Known about the structure:
Blueprint: H1 3-6, H2 15-36, E1 48-55, H3 61-69, E2 78-81, H4 96-99, E3 108-112, H5 121-124, H6 130-149, E4 152-160, H7 163-175, H8 185-192, H9 194-208, E5 215-219, H10 223-247
Parallel strand pairs: 1-3, 1-4, 2-3, 4-5
Helix pairs in contact: 2-10, 3-10
Amino acid sequence: MGRLEHIDMTARLSSSEYDERLAAAQQRFLELRLELGGHTNDGKIGPGLLVVMEGSDAGGKGGAIKRLVQPLDPRHYSVYSYAAPSERELRHHFLWRFWSKAPGQGGMCVFDRSWYGRVLVERVEGYASTAEWNRAYDEIVNFERGLTNEGVIVVKFWMQVSPEEQLERFEDRRDDPLRRWKLTEEDWRNREKRDVYDEATEEMFERTDHSAAPWNLIAGDQKKWARIAVLETTIRRVEDGMRIWADS
């Protein structure tokens, strides 16, 4: 039984509990972000923060990112969305396009999709050879360990939705002219290969879950639950990272 099957997809929050926990979490995250950046600590900066968002198509990544950064000054974070590499990027190592965007000490970035595309879509769709995606696991872990060794807290999320909820969200997007742009033919094709993608995802968890940057699996069928889980998990990981930073 894989990790995806262990996610409790029935997790729910009432609207009142959601509002209460959202306000508290956003307030706490704002405090932490200001402290990381040296804005409330006599100018002494803390570690950097990199939040990596992966998950099912229509898994709620965008909504979770929005709630995470909502209380922050826009000068205090960057969000990068990654799709297929450009022609120029393809001439470099697959990690090249991510390295320069990673935050330094005191900085914060959110990656909407990431280097894990090498062992997911590039593996499943054949854009990477077997040798390329097979060696990528160790390259990714070494890359993440390198970031943490240099003072970056790496928080990785996988947001999972059930096939039924995913279909409903796809159809809602298809029928909404202001959100139709978020749905592509590739999304429908990927849905047909869900079993293959799940197999690749399970291997990804097995080979890239490590102490410096563990995976956090989020039940995404209810957006309220997922958004609070992302916020509160990020807070815990930042608090842990700051304690490690202070002791180093």
